[in-house]
Amino acid sequence: MSYDQGLVVRVASALDSLGARGVRQKNVFGGRGFLVGKTTFVIVWGEGVLVKVPAAEYEAARAAPGVTPFQPDGTRPMGTWLVVSAESVADDPELQEWVARGLRTVR
């Protein structure tokens, strides 16, 4: 699956705005992942993003419009990963909020 290069730039910009340091990028699951150390927390995937959210925030985050559990096998959700649609991250403040959630998971 290809990924949206412009969204990669926007995620990197959101991380800069959050003052995140030590974040690197890597190709993951056919998308472009953002990692701290060896732990991935956001993946630009297609036109949206996959975000690993803190367990305590999972149910509330999952209930947001345009958000579904990440189910790579089609049956079981993969941990606390969520698929966030392109429409849900179309505006920079919303994207930054999702990126911050992912970052909180690894910090």
From TrEMBL:
InterPro entries the UniProt entry points to: TfoX_N
Annotated ranges, domain TfoX N-terminal: 21-104
Highest taxon above the source species: Bacteria
Pfam families noted in UniProt: TfoX_N
Protein name as catalogued: TfoX N-terminal domain-containing protein
Annotated source species: Roseisolibacter agri
